[in-house]
Each structure stands twice: as C-alpha cells, then as structure tokens.
Model the fold of this input.
Amino acid sequence: MPKLYIIATPIGNLEDISARAVRILSEADLILCEDTRNTQKLLEHYAIKKPLLSYHQHSKIKKTEKIIELLKNGGNIALVSDAGTPGVSDPGNKLIEEALKFLPGLKIIPVPGACALAAAASVCDFSMDKFLFLGFPPVKNKRKKFFEEVLASQHPVIFYESTHRIIKSLEELAALEKESALGKKRRLAVCRELSKKFETIYRGSAGEIAVQLERGTAKGEFVVVVGPSAS
Done:
C-alpha cells in the first residue's frame, strides 16, 4: 500500500526537524513542496538527494492527477511546506481530500514537528488552554469583519500576518477596541521571526506594539496572539 507522509519542516532554524522526518525524506520516492528552491536548501543541509515536485495553492488539477497516479503505482510520497506543518494555512488538506477520493485505503501519515502557531502559543503569558486560529487576515475586503471576530472571541485568537501589513493590522485592531463595548484592551503576544536570528516577542496592547514596530522594525514573518477577553 502506498503512503503519503505529511512532514513538518523547520520554520527557521534548520535544526528544528526530527530524526524521523530526515529519515523519511531520504527514503521517499518523491517530495512535494511549495517552492523547490526552499526545500532544496533543507535537503542539501541534510545531504538528501531526492526528486522534487512543486505543489502549492495554484497547482492545476493535472498536477494533482499526476501525484495520484504515482500513488496508485505504489510510490511513497512526502509532502512538505516551505516552513512548518503542511495543512496549516497551505493546500495540503486539498491534496489529501483528492487522493482519498481515488485511493480510499491510502495510508496518510503525519510526521509532526515545527509549527509557528504552536511555537507562539507556547510563549504566551496568558492561558492557552483553548484558542481560535484564523490564518491570515483578508488582504482587502472583510478586514473589519475579521478583526471584529477576533475581538468577539472569549478565547485567545492566533493569526498570521506579513511584514507588509502587520502595523496596519495592529492599528485596525486597536481602533476597533476603542469603538467596541467589549471591555478593556486585549493583551497581545506578537512573535517576529520565530526560531530565526532576529526572533523577537512583543507584549502589550495592539496599539503599544504597533508603536514599537514603527520605532524599530516590522521586517519578517509574524504570528499574532490576541489574549482572552478577560485578560
């Protein structure tokens, strides 16, 4: 029976990968990845030489059909994202859905590891027993609705944001807090460049952290954790 491995890869530091993940990558018949250049750097670091095939949210149905055909022929395939755990804000789940339509008995095996949202949750100074993950905020439309949902949650909310919109998002969140009748300002933990050289964790209100970023730097990848309404 063919196997589809869903493998977590480092979100920054290349040491953050399990021995099991390295072994399976070295044994797979094919590795699916968002960007072959990024995955190639990881493979070279661990002296792994395997064929790569790009698979991302814009991949056409013909590529999915090719992958399913390889699985039908008994191939063992590993799926990785550029960083972190596949299926979390990337198209990994879509491939699984399509593969199971044609191969109901396909073994799908998770190989856990680095995940930016879990890393951010682990360093919060408020309870993370329950939380809501919302992925990336909309780029244009429905942004206000998105942040209203964040502030309406009784539990902490985690979302990702890019270097280009992080300050804007924090300012929009702060503005909505002023308008709302949902209580005092929420406490945030904003994580920049997790596991990388310039890793920084900012703590405070949305408005306070926006000012810190404006005075310092907003370069990098961000994970925003908005604390619970009672915090």
Q: What stands out?
A: The chain is about 35% helix and 20% strand. The longest strand covers residues 3-7.
